[in-house]
Design brief:
alpha/beta, 21% strand, Aldehyde Dehydrogenase, Chain A, domain 2, 6-stranded mixed beta sheet
């Protein structure tokens, strides 16, 4: 397809072809291309290349590193339209959201590149004749695993952090949505990144992780994805004494206090829930609404959800595309049926749209009981679960009742409520009166089963470094 790139592996500064699996367009179930699978030889070559790339890149000045990284970002900005079309074809999201994702990925890498020039150490005061200095140095070769739901911005977080800190990286991107990573790597290749600093592989995830993580040259594992896989990779990394950054699943609560305008808040909630068809680890899902505004909020939410136009992502009039794969479609149908059986009311959506393509509408379930599966399991789709609560304290208790703790949201005009929410909600990211979980400058990550380590901000960049203390007796 003319608007879809050639898919290849990138190892040691060169592109490689290989056999693989089909990439499916979720809007019409057609085959877009074949994504190559790396062999054991390809992985060994990527390891050797990354080792050599690290020797070069870690000794390159931060200013020169930033120059090359920013040149790559400039190329991506020039190519945003072609990149966005490819992303919509393979992942399904509306073309406008694809453009925004690419630009957001560019902003993340730009911030990391500039902050990479400021990874400072420090001098510790001591007695005469003794000097204690603390250095932050790049950790080494990074094995990075990115998911299918954000094909460019998720790889961008890992590549931007690793390269800006002076590391080399082997990126294992999603086989279902590979174009974003291929186009990102192409920009770095065109910008003159030294061979081996950035390597891209695809393949059977377990085969790649089980081969890469135990290798002595791999010094850090970073993964974005599901909790079960994250726990498995964490255990594997721990067995080999490798630090890890784990950005895992979430089940974000949204607490609606009774001092807000329920209609405007519900409309904003529906738009946020529809983003990327709800296939976002920080998507607001469990809406805990105080009694006084519950009915008005629920009615306004359902009314707004019914206006969200669902269709092919390349049509600019559509506000929500298909789900990314047939697994998500089946999951939505199962979770809705379970919630209905336990007493929830479907007030918008609830059934698949058509029989070709993985289209499912924004679905609002009201009066959802605590024992519904969707209240305990991350739906990862366009399901909004509405529940009534007596007060903010009950809302916080229910918000914290699941093992997840990635993102949370709350709407209130009370300073007292803000303090209670900030202190009480168990989440790595709490957004109040808006639905933006993170930006390039801020750290992003979870607590409890939602992972550990951070991406973004100086805290994220520091995860790609090691601390060395140097004590020097001068006299």
């Amino acid at each position: 397809m003319a608007n879809y790139p050639d898919l290849r592996l990138y190892i040691g500064g060169a592109w490689r072809e290989a056999d693989g699996q089909p990439v499916i367009n979720p809007a019409d179930e057609s085959v877009l291309a074949t994504v190559p699978h790396a062999s054991r030889t390809d992985l060994d070559d990527a390891l050797a290349s990354a080792e050599q790339g690290f020797k070069v890149w870690s000794r390159t000045s931060p200013a020169k590193r930033a120059e090359i990284i920013l040149k790559a970002v400039g190329l991506m900005r020039e190519r945003v339209e072609s990149m966005a079309i490819a992303m919509t074809l393979e992942q399904g999201k509306p073309i406008g959201q694809s453009r925004l994702e690419i630009l957001r990925g560019c902003e993340i890498i730009e911030w990391d590149a500039q902050e990479g020039r400021r990874v400072y150490g420090r001098i510790i005061p001591s007695e005469p004749g003794m000097r204690h200095s603390v250095l932050r140095q790049p950790i080494g070769v990074v094995a990075a695993f990115s998911p299918w739901n954000f094909p460019m911005s998720s790889p961008a977080r890992k590549v931007g952090g690793a390269l800006s800190a002076g590391c080399s990286i082997i990126l294992k991107a999603s086989e279902e949505t590979p174009a974003g990573a291929v186009q990102l790597v192409q920009a770095f290749d065109d910008a003159g990144l030294p061979p081996g600093v950035l390597n891209l592989v695809f393949g059977r995830p377990s085969d790649i992780s089980e081969h890469l993580i135990p290798q002595p040259s791999v010094r850090l594992v970073t993964f974005t994805g599901s909790v079960p896989v994250g726990k498995h990779l964490s255990a594997m990394a721990g067995a080999h004494m490798k630090p890890a950054i784990m950005e895992l699943g979430g089940h974000a609560p949204a607490i609606m206090c009774d001092d807000i305008d329920p209609v405007s808040s519900a409309a904003a909630s529906a738009v946020a829930k529809s983003r990327n068809a709800g296939q976002v680890c920080v998507s607001p899902t469990r809406f805990f609404v105080e009694d006084a505004i519950y009915h008005e909020f629920a009615d306004a939410f359902a009314a707004k959800a019914a206006t969200i136009k669902v269709g092919h992502g390349l049509d600019p009039d559509n506000q929500m595309g298909p789900l990314a794969n047939d697994r998500r479609l089946a999951a939505m149908e199962t979770l809705v049926a379970d919630a209905k059986a336990k007493g929830a009311r479907v007030t918008a959506g609830g059934e698949r749209i058509g029989n070709r393509g993985y289209f499912f509408p924004l679905t609002v379930l009201a009066d959802v009981p605590d024992d519904a599966r969707a209240m305990r399991e991350e739906p990862f789709g366009p399901l909004a679960l509405l529940s009534r609560v007596r007060n903010v304290d009950e809302a916080i208790e229910k918000a914290n009742s699941v093992p997840y703790g990635l993102a949370a949201y709350a709407f209130t005009n009370s300073a007292r409520n803000v303090d209670r929410l900030a202190d009480g909600v168990e989440a790595g990211n709490l957004s109040i009166n808006h639905f933006v979980a993170s930006i390039a400058e801020t750290p992003f990550g979870g607590v409890k089963d939602s992972g550990f380590g951070r991406e973004g901000g100086i805290e994220g960049l520091q995860c790609y470094t090691v601390v060395k203390n140097v004590s020097h007796l001068t006299a």
